[in-house]
Amino acid sequence: MAPSSVRALHYVIKVADRTATVHFLHDVLGMHALRHEEFKQGCKAACNGPYSGMWSKTMMGYDSEDSAFVLELTYNYDVKGYRPGNDHVYFKIRNRVAYTNLEEQGLGHEIEFNVREVRSPDGHVFRVLNEDPTDSGYLASVCLASADLERSVAYWADALGFLEVDRGDDFAVMSAGAGQATLRLTQLPAGTALDRGTGYGRIAFSCPAADLSPLQEEVQARGYRVLTPLVSLETPGKATVQVVILADPDGHEICFVGDEAFRQLSVPDDNAPTLLQRSISLDGSREWLESKQQRQEGAASHKATAAVGAAGAKSAAGSPQAAGAAAAAPAAAAPVAAPKPAAPAAAPAAAAAVAAKSAGK
Prior knowledge:
Keywords: Repeat
Organism: Chlorella ohadii
Strand content: 25-35%
Strand order of the largest sheet: 2-3-4-1-13-16-15-14
Radius of gyration: 26 Å
Protein name: VOC domain-containing protein
Shape: globular
Structural class: alpha+beta
Helix content: 25-40%
Order of helices and strands: EHEEEEHEEEEHEEEEHEEEHHHHH
Pfam families: GLOD4_C, Glyoxalase
Largest sheet: 8 strands, mixed
Family: Belongs to the glyoxalase I family.
């Protein structure tokens, strides 16, 4: 059955340039760091994507997670970048100050009167309206693409119990309840396949913990996918939450988390900005990745050069002149094995120190 009550929580975005993205969200759009957490290994529910290494989670928004829809920034220390897809269309923000900031700094462009569209350093699109927030808050809506709008609406309405609150020829707006951020589904042009790339996101909602298992059973009974069956997720020093991860017909990931424990986990941390800036200042992962790539490219170049040389020697040895020379020459010494490339350096100690310090809190 559909959950008895649902609350829209956040949308997860993967960021490769954490420093630039945080600057954009804070200094341009006016969001604040609400929580910052470091993890030594990948999430059991793939919260950080299909990666097993160290990562961080930063919640950013205009108000507390209890009362507003926010963004979750996931940053994988050992991932240099992500390939964008066409699955995420834009975020809609109502904020006069953010609109003025964009205008004064010459960022983005006007797509209609009092609506400015801008792309973040990591490529996510924001539509900023020169308006005061409504009951749904400053971050008012997430727009996702759909390859089959009717199929998508049926999933969100019938399987999850969402309400269709607006409809057009090529879009539908779904809501979990009054006064909440909405989900806008937009039909892709005919013949265009939906591509989630590697930078795909995830939308999160909460519901009573007792509803999680019945929801999972309902979705499975209808033949839809459950990406991660009901599982408990731990955050060092904070509340443990239960989640189930679903996928709609287009593959958009949907997290449902038990509301009771999530309210404990999501209490704003006044120290979050300091923790975030400390992590950024200690992060040496970008330099490590650059060094690793250079080593790999150097090894590949050496291997290619050696292969060309070997091919040339073999060709020369097969000639009549080479055969005669070989017969007259003394036996050659055994070839000396080429030295093996050095093993990749360990992950940056600074990033490890951040994770260790966070885990101890």
